[in-house]
């Protein structure tokens, strides 16, 4: 197909027909990332019957033209989102569902959250937690209106090929052009220091560096109101003792399991309720520990809100927080739950089938 033919398809008398076809042929790829996926299932089940609007969920990226991002996108999923988007043919569209996809939602201060709009171009956002099925169908209708009223989209590049060279009888046959090697662009990295317009943060970092000298491995601004302090496990208590003079509570305790590096990362997210300028600031204090000896000093003595979070992490990952007197009892999980279920090497129980007499 020549460039003229492509232009003709996009702007000539056939253009409305092409738009009409795209409008009624939306094939959303299944990319369930979080609980918003339940609402998507609801929108496409018998009650709302999303298919009647000309869109049908499908499982293979290369035959789809719409991604509905269903809620939270984590660092790991960001790569999957990018690869999926790049595999889809043009013209393609993106709808993002839920508060998590807009600004992180209830995980807004999580270390692992990525905004989908930083990874792929987004056509429509649907607010809510979760948004209703009606809201999703409304977004589909809005997208259809956008397709019909907007400019035709197509970024496919056709390779020019000299047809006169193709396999004339008696000549050496030519090989067809080989497809281009597919190499997805990596998604943005979210854990590198950022240059942000945050003068208070720069002043704060300078103060922290002088206060905590000799106790940390690195202190970086990872975003506005976000500071990361990396330390050795043995220095964490001394660090917490100094930091607790500025920051009065722990918002979250996280454990990140990295089996291929034989380690866990333990992370405390600390902030302040009492100093106005520090209220929006979240400091991630983290250290690595070996996976075969998962012990970490409890920081509940400095920040009492860490107490139940540490016990929760023991239930889920088996990291023992030394000095937390309540550690050891099953705290969060039901008694018959398997041990440390969030460890990545935990095997799922296989279904047991038995013959019925
Ligand atoms: S917006 Fe709410 S329902 Fe949707 S993924 Fe986030 S937490 Fe779940």
Short descriptors:
357 residues, Rossmann fold, Beta Polymerase, domain 2, five-stranded mixed beta sheet, four-stranded parallel beta sheet, elongated, binds iron/sulfur cluster
Explained architecture:
- By secondary structure, the protein is α/β, with parallel strands linked by helices.
- The chain has two domains: 147 residues, Rossmann fold (3-Layer(aba) Sandwich), CATH 3.40.50; 124 residues, NADH:ubiquinone oxidoreductase Nqo5 subunit (Beta Polymerase, domain 2).
- Helix 2 runs antiparallel to helix 6 and helix 3 packs across helix 6.
- The protein starts with a helix and ends in a 35-residue tail after the last strand.
- Iron/sulfur cluster binds next to helix 5.
The number of distinct structural domains comes to 2
Radius of gyration: 26 Å
- Total beta-strand segments: 11
N-end to C-end Cα span: 65 Å
CATH architecture identity of the largest domain:
3-Layer(aba) Sandwich
Order of helical and strand elements: HHEHEHEHEHHEEHEEEEHE
Small molecules in complex: iron/sulfur cluster
Provide the CATH top-level class of the largest domain: Alpha Beta
If you consult CATH, what is the topology of the largest domain? Rossmann fold
Gross morphology: elongated
- Which percent bin holds the helix content? 25-40%
């Amino acid at each position: 197909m020549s460039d003229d033919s492509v232009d003709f398809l996009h702007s000539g008398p056939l253009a409305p027909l092409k738009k009409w076809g795209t409008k009624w042929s939306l094939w959303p790829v299944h990319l369930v990332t979080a609980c918003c996926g339940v609402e998507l299932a609801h929108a496409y089940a018998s009650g709302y019957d999303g298919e009647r609007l000309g869109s049908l969920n499908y499982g293979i990226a290369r035959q789809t033209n719409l991604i509905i991002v269903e809620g939270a996108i984590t660092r790991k999923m960001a790569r999957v989102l990018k690869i999926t988007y790049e595999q889809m043919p043009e013209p393609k569209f993106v709808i993002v569902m839920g508060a998590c996809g807009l600004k992180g939602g209830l995980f807004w201060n999580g270390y692992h959250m990525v905004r989908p709009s930083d990874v792929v171009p987004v056509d429509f956002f649907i607010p809510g937690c979760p948004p209703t099925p009606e809201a999703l169908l409304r977004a589909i209708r809005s997208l259809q209106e956008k397709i019909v009223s907007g400019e035709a989209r197509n970024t496919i590049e056709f390779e020019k090929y000299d047809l006169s060279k193709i396999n004339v009888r008696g000549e050496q046959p030519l090989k067809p052009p080989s497809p281009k090697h597919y190499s997805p662009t990596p998604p943005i990295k979210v854990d590198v220091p950022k240059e942000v317009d945050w003068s208070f943060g720069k002043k704060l970092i300078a103060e922290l560096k002088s206060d905590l000298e000799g106790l940390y491995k690195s202190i970086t601004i990872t975003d506005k109101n976000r500071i990361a302090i990396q330390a050795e496990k043995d220095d964490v208590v001394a660090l917490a003792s100094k930091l607790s003079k500025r920051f009065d509570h722990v918002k979250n305790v996280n454990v990140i399991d990295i089996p291929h590096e034989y380690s866990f990362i333990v992370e405390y997210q600390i902030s302040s309720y009492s100093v106005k300028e520090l209220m929006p600031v979240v400091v991630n204090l983290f250290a690595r520990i070996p996976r075969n000896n998962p012990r970490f000093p409890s920081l509940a003595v400095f920040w009492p809100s860490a107490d139940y979070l540490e016990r929760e992490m023991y239930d889920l990952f088996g990291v023992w927080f030394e000095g937390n007197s309540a550690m050891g009892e099953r705290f969060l999980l039901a008694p018959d739950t398997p041990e440390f279920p969030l460890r990545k090497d935990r095997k799922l129980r296989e279904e047991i089938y038995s013959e019925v007499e």
